[in-house]
């Protein structure tokens, strides 16, 4: 896809576009016609800030924090930031988007190296490598230490993305059984990799001997392995974190090692990098530490350099089809005509991601006449459906490619008639293992003015503004259910912003949806489920 907003061809011809690489990598050949590329390795931050106003693009690794301070120092010229690697948690994406700066990453290049490092940490912890190394250097010849074999044990992987999948493959070569938890990938990927699927994180933790995490650092994954989760692991387990500091809580990990509950652990990443000299990891027993070296191989850095430089130069010429993390992509006219519907599509996708993640089919039905080609609404629905589960923030540019990568099949149907509304968009997802019962979830909506409205939830008709939190509850259509539920919410001081009722037939199953200003705690949701008038209750965040 070509987005002709980044630079005009005339501009390219007359003045070289300037690119600064401020972190260490192998940038390959720096001579490209029309560009001036300065490679500075480990440029001190104050130098980066000072020089940045003279550049059109900046290329970093995880060392450089691209925050508001850096963006303010950059001024107006900077238009593209390239992250030579996968994780973009060092980049303030929102601030970049607001300033119209395109962020790209290079997610294909270092995953083998990162996966191999995770396997190394597993082996090192299993055999007490760091302990034995330290003792031998200190003059102690300790041959009493007994390690554990990997063969016939079970490895648990959290996050079966690019790196998690390679770890699974290598682990199988070591004759480990592999189980993974990743609610966002479809069943067929598990089947293809020969990996057993755990239905929940807890289910994974209780059945493995070794655990390794390979998710991005997100609101959901930060601290996802804490004291409670570590306690669910079998005594004598091993934990590896070569993804991001804090996915496994640091203090909890140290405690579990000190108490002897864990046999050992390996970490490549810290919450603060570099760690302070008094960091508790440094004194923890049988903990192997590397200095965020997952991507540090000759091969990976050669590939990373070529991939990110190529992508950044292409983007400066207007081609943002590869590696875009935050790109806004539609022209102003389409946005004007479809604006409300794009917002609707994304919200429908986001609701479905919570009702049925990891689907293998997504079908969009358009009813009625749309002011412009409605195809971008499908992309918007994908953005919503895929968001929150990957570092490559799904956006209007990359969502279709990401869906394809994940094995999510798309179907679009158009119906001229829209009996109830001028236009209606209905999105249906289907998921489930091959040969097993397939589950589907459907949501639909329309646009009033420019504001999205939900019109359909599963088989029920509703009319509701999709905002904040939506509590979806079902019951046998009996009097008193709504009153009991709203009383309970009232006692917690939770305000109901909107309500819609629907039922399949009189006296049959009824569905009511409430929009709430605030979320609910797991205990509050359970209390609602425990009401005798409620059959099921579910909370989604829009
Ligand atoms: N130590 C190092 O030097 C390196 C570390 N990394 C880290 O590894 C991470 C993973 O990289 P890739 O595999 O390339 O990314 P990816 O996007 O291909 O895979 C991430 C997987 O995590 C899953 N996931 C997201 N949230 C989850 C949750 N709450 N529970 C379970 N699964 C969840 C996603 O569905 C996805 O399948 C990166 O985000 C980066 O932070 C990456 C490269 C090198
Ligand atoms: O690609 C990633 O996410 C990594 O963690 C590698 O980071 P680095 O490029 O080594 O600073």
State the helical fraction. 25-40%
The main sheet comes to: 7 strands, parallel
How would you sum up the global shape? globular
Q: What's the average pLDDT? A: 91
The share of residues in extended strands comes to 15-25%
Strand order of the largest sheet: 8-7-6-9-10-11-12
Commentary on this structure:
The protein is an alpha/beta fold. 32% of the residues lie in helices and 24% in strands. The chain contains 17 helices and 22 strands. The protein has helices at residues 9-14, 45-51, 68-74, 93-98, 111-127, 129-137, 162-173, 187-193, 201-205, 227-232, 250-258, 298-316, 332-355, 375-386, 399-405, 481-491, 522-529; strands at 17-21, 35-39, 57-60, 80-83, 102-105, 154-158, 177-181, 196-197, 210-213, 237-241, 262-267, 287-289, 361-368, 409-415, 423-431, 439-448, 451-457, 460-464, 469-476, 496-503, 509-516, 536-541. β9, α10 and β10 form a beta-alpha-beta unit. α5 (111-127) crosses α7 (162-173) and α13 (332-355) crosses α14. Bound molecules: 1,4-dihydronicotinamide adenine dinucleotide and 2-oxo-3-(phosphonooxy)propanoic acid. Residues 85-87, 107, 110-111, 114, 158-164, 181-182, 184-185, 214-218, 220-221, 242-244, 268-269, 292, 294-295, 389-391 line the site of 1,4-dihydronicotinamide adenine dinucleotide. Residues 85-87, 107, 110-111, 114, 158-164, 181-182, 184-185, 214-218, 220-221, 242-244, 268-269, 292, 294-295, 389-391 line the site of 1,4-dihydronicotinamide adenine dinucleotide (NAI).
Give a short summary of the structure.
By secondary structure, the chain is of the alpha/beta class.
């Amino acid at each position: 896809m070509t987005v002709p907003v980044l630079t005009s061809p005339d501009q390219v011809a007359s003045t070289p576009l300037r690119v600064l690489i401020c972190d260490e990598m192998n940038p390959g050949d720096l001579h490209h016609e029309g560009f001036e590329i300065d490679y500075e390795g480990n440029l001190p931050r104050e130098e980066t800030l000072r020089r940045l106003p003279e550049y059109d693009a900046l290329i970093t690794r995880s060392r450089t924090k691209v925050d508001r301070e850096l963006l303010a120092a950059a001024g107006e010229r900077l238009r593209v930031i390239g992250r030579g690697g996968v994780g973009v948690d060092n980049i303030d994406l929102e601030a970049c988007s607001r300033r119209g700066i395109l962020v790209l990453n290079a997610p294909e290049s270092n995953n083998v190296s990162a996966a191999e490092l995770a396997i190394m940490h597993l082996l090192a912890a299993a055999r007490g490598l760091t302990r034995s190394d330290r003792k031998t250097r200190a003059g102690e010849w300790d041959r009493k230490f007994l390690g554990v074999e990997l063969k016939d044990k079970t490895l648990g992987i959290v996050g079966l993305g690019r790196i998690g999948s390679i770890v699974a493959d290598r682990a199988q070569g070591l004759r480990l059984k592999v189980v993974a938890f990743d609610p966002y990938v479809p069943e067929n990927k598990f089947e293809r990799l020969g990996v057993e699927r755990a239905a929940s994180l807890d289910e994974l933790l209780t059945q493995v001997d070794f655990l390794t995490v390979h998710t991005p650092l997100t609101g959901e994954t930060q601290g996802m392995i804490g004291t409670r989760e570590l306690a669910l692991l079998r005594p004598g387990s091993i934990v590896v974190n070569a993804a991001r500091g804090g996915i496994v809580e640091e203090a909890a990990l140290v405690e579990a090692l000190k108490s002897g509950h864990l046999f050992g652990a390996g970490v490549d990443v810290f919450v603060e990098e570099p760690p302070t000299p008094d960091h508790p990891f440094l004194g923890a027993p049988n903990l192997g530490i590397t200095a965020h070296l997952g991507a540090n191989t000759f091969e990976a850095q050669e590939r990373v350099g070529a991939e990110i430089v190529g992508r950044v130069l292409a983007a400066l010429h207007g081609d943002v089809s590869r590696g875009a993390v935050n790109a806004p992509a539609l022209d102003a006219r389409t946005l004007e005509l479809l604006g409300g519907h794009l917002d609707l599509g994304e919200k429908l996708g986001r609701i479905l991601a919570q009702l049925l993640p990891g689907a293998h089919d997504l079908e969009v039905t358009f009813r009625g006449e749309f002011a412009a080609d409605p195809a971008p609404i499908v992309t918007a629905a994908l953005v919503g459906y895929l968001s929150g589960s990957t570092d490559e923030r799904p956006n209007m540019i990359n969502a279709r490619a990401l869906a394809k990568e994940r094995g999510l099949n798309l179907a679009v149907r158009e119906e001229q008639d829209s009996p109830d509304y001028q236009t209606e968009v209905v999105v249906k997802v289907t998921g489930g293992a091959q040969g097993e019962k397939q589950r589907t979830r459907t949501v639909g909506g329309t646009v009033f003015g420019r504001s999205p409205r939900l019109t359909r939830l599963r088989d029920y008709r509703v009319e509701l503004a999709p905002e904040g939190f939506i509590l979806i509850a079902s019951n046998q259509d009996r009097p008193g259910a709504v009153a009991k539920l709203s009383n309970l919410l009232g006692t917690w001081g939770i305000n109901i912003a909107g309500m819609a009722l629907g039922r399949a037939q009189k006296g049959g199953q009824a569905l009511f949806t409430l929009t709430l200003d605030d979320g609910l705690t797991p205990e509050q949701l359970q209390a609602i489920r425990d009401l005798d008038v409620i059959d099921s209750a579910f909370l989604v965040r829009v």
